[in-house]
Design goal:
The complex is a heterodimer of chains A (215) and B (207).
Chain A lengths: L3 H11 L5 E4 L9 E4 L4 H10 L7 E10 L2 E13 L2 E13 L2 E10 L4 E10 L5 E3 L8 H12 L2 E3 L36 H8 L8 H4 L3
Parallel strand pairs in A: 2-7, 8-9
Antiparallel strand pairs in A: 1-2, 3-6, 4-5, 6-7
Chain B lengths: L6 H9 L7 H10 L12 H9 L22 E5 L7 H10 L5 E5 H6 L21 E3 L6 H16 L24 E2 L4 E2 L16
Parallel strand pairs in B: 1-2, 2-3
Antiparallel strand pairs in B: 4-5
Classes of the chains: A alpha/beta (215), B alpha/beta (207).
The complex binds iron/sulfur cluster.
Chain lengths: 215, 207
């Protein structure tokens, strides 16, 4: 299979205007991925599926991710002249990345027996919307519905976007990190951590000093 | 209909070839040996329930091998597995459709309390929030022997039920409800979160 860089170049040549970034995965699995922009997502996907050398005809997995706001610290070693002496100085810079929601697709080629290539699309938390890739890979249909159900990302162009696991009347998005489960902690025999905090709200009030005093 | 037969007299009569019993004993004996369970399973515990019904553990020895596919013909509901919040109203509805006398076994940690998924957003923290449970079996999953044990407990319970008098069995008491409200799907959770007539958790106070 071609490398991601080669694929990226070929996509950019085939789909004018497409913005592709390579997202590096620093873990030992080193499964790097392609971040594709929302506007050209479907054209890029169609290229990945139809290009004779790539032929990613199988979308095996679609999943959602909720990234919180994060700060990335970068340290750069530079040489600086301090008081006429050259010294190594570490310059640290902080980069704030606001949180976002992400949909991740794993693609394989059954025709060429290669893969996976991972593509990602990002969207903000408010008004989360991405273009659906179900028209390209039918296998994404239920999984995009699941992401819609649990993360609240609307997939524009999806043929049948409804909740799939939770009931239709449900309004929350339980896999988002700011989700707070409803207050059904009346009976927690072995509470700890967060559960303990929430269970405590159901404990009866302790009698006050005056109530305890015999009158 | 009285249930007070003198044990000495009874064994004396039996020695003479006369078998004496009471209506209540006969009735309960018949009921306890043909408990027909409702045929449904919710999660992994159902696999153990199936194993219990198969030849090795053979629930037919207790007269309960006739798993009925309709609540109208069932005496016993074995809640075998995880009750999701989406499923809970259907369980209550099935319970309501069963004719009296009816019994419920909560099989496994999930049915009792939500089990390993207790803190999940989608799992009901115990079916006893909406319907009364007769026998609880702990385990994840409980072994078939445990389900058989629950059966024997249930048989014991049925055997001791009275047909008359102040302590008569619930199903003979007109005042006692045989149906419970079905929870509705709400915006954030089931509404209500529990039926206070059925679910009375102990109040805990911890320092
Ligand atoms: S109690 Fe354990 S075995 Fe039974 S349904 Fe729950 S998770 Fe599965």
């Amino acid at each position: 299979m071609e490398t991601l860089e080669q694929i990226k170049k070929r996509i950019e040549a085939a789909v004018p205007g497409a913005k592709i970034d390579i997202v590096n995965n620093g873990s030992p699995s080193a499964q790097h991925s392609l971040k594709i922009d929302n506007e050209h997502a479907r054209d890029v996907a169609r290229f990945l599926r139809d290009d004779p050398a790539l032929r990613f005809d199988f979308c095996s997995n679609v999943t959602g991710v909720d990234w919180l706001d994060r700060v990335i610290k970068k340290t750069v070693k530079t040489k600086q002249v301090v008081d006429g002496v050259e010294k190594d100085v570490d310059l640290t810079s902080e980069e704030k990345i606001p949180g976002y929601l992400e949909a991740v697709y794993h693609l394989f080629s059954i025709a060429h027996k290669h893969g996976p290539v991972i593509i990602r699309m990002q969207t903000g938390r408010a008004n989360a919307q991405l273009s659906s890739l179900t028209p390209i890979w039918r296998s994404a249909e239920l999984q995009e519905r699941e992401i819609f159900d649990l993360y609240g990302i609307k997939f524009e162009g999806h043929p049948d976007l409804r909740r799939i696991l939770m009931w239709d009347e449900f309004e929350d998005f339980p896999m988002r990190k700011d989700y707070r489960p409803p207050d059904d902690f009346e009976w927690e025999p072995t509470p700890h951590d967060d559960v303990l905090e929430r269970a405590k709200q159901h404990y009866p009030a302790r009698p006050t000093e005056t109530e305890l005093k015999p009158s | 209909m009285g249930d007070e037969i003198d044990e000495g007299l009874r064994s004396e009569l039996q020695r003479q070839g006369i078998w004496v019993t009471s209506m209540q004993e006969l009735y309960n004996w018949g009921r306890k040996n043909s408990i027909w369970p409702l045929q449904f399973g919710l999660a992994c515990c159902a696999i153990e329930m199936i194993a219990t019904a198969a030849s090795r553990y053979d629930i037919a020895r207790f007269g309960a091998e006739v798993f009925r596919p309709s609540p109208r013909q069932a005496d016993l509901m074995i809640v075998a597995g995880t009750v999701t919040k989406k499923m809970a109203p259907q369980i209550v509805r099935l319970y309501n459709q069963m004719p009296d006398p009816k019994y419920v076994i909560a099989m496994g940690a999930c049915a009792i309390s939500g089990g390993p998924f207790k803190q999940g957003y989608n799992v009901l923290k115990g079916i006893d929030r909406y319907i009364p449970v007769d026998v609880y079996i702990p385990g994840c999953p409980p072994r078939p022997e445990a389900l058989l044990h629950a059966f024997m407990e249930l048989q014991r319970k049925i055997d001791n039920q009275k047909l008359s008098g102040p302590n008569k069995s619930d199903h003979l008491d007109r005042e006692h409800p045989s149906e419970y409200p079905v929870p509705a799907f709400g915006k954030h959770d089931l509404v209500p979160r529990a039926n206070p007539d059925v679910f009375r958790p102990p109040q805990i106070e911890r320092v």
